[in-house]
TrEMBL record:
SUPFAM superfamilies: RmlC-like cupins. InterPro entries: RmlC-like (IPR000888), RmlC-like_jellyroll (IPR014710), RmlC_Cupin_sf (IPR011051). This is dTDP-4-dehydrorhamnose 3,5-epimerase. It comes from Micromonospora qiuiae. It comes from the Bacteria. The lineage of its organism: Bacteria, Bacillati, Actinomycetota, Actinomycetes, Micromonosporales. Belongs to the dTDP-4-dehydrorhamnose 3,5-epimerase family.
Length: 205
């Protein structure tokens, strides 16, 4: 597989090599050793999720308090989505910037995003199905959201009228989240990643 860093620190695109013949195909969609080599520490697998979305559904922008945050390794096993990574880390050189990757069941790419980054998706097909590997279990008290249609972020979602959950539709803008002090700090996220790397080298992770 090929692992390429995105323009936002802590985010990578993973492109697997597919082996096909008349019977079908085979690929490695996740390799802990290859990912750890790129990221600097292994992904601690704590929870795996599936989400299924109707066409034009937008989910996000979701993130979790750091520590522990929630790193994610995301791939699309059916249909297609636009996967969006947003830098919500206060003090980051790319704070407020977003980047997108198309994930689908043809190229079968994946995206890894580190703790502290925001994540959103838009379903480009019906029954778009995502598989998530997560570094931490779901913790409602530490889960946060920024409005996906915030004009300051300016994310270019494909549908003219995105379909949002009630929670996402009521989410604060980036400016309001910043004022409320709920966004992760860049320095805290970097220190946390460094601790994970140190723990990996000492055999604690």
């Amino acid at each position: 597989m090929k692992i390429r860093p995105l323009g936002i620190e802590g985010a990578w695109e993973v492109s697997p090599r597919q082996h096909g013949d008349p019977r079908g195909l085979f690929l490695e969609w996740y390799r802990f050793d290859r990912l750890a080599e790129a990221v600097g520490h292994p992904l601690r697998l704590a929870q795996a999720n599936l989400s299924v979305s109707a066409r034009d559904v937008v989910r996000g922008i979701h993130f979790a308090d750091v520590p522990p945050g929630q790193a994610k390794y995301v791939t699309c096993v059916r249909g297609a989505v636009l996967d969006v990574v947003v830098d919500l880390r206060v003090g980051s050189p790319t704070f407020g910037r977003w980047e997108s990757v198309r994930l689908d069941d043809a190229d079968r790419r994946a995206v890894y995003l580190a703790e502290g980054l925001g994540h959103g998706v838009c379903a480009l097909t019906g029954d778009a199905t995502l598989s998530y590997l997560c570094s931490a279990t779901y913790n409602p008290s530490g889960e946060r959201v920024v409005h996906p249609l915030d004009e300051e972020l300016g994310i270019e979602w494909p549908p003219e009228v995105p379909l949002l959950s009630a929670r996402d539709a009521a989410a604060p803008t980036l400016a309001l989240a910043l004022a409320a002090g709920v966004l992760p700090e860049y320095a805290t996220c970097r220190d946390y990643a460094a601790a994970l790397g140190a723990g990996a080298h000492s055999g604690l992770v």
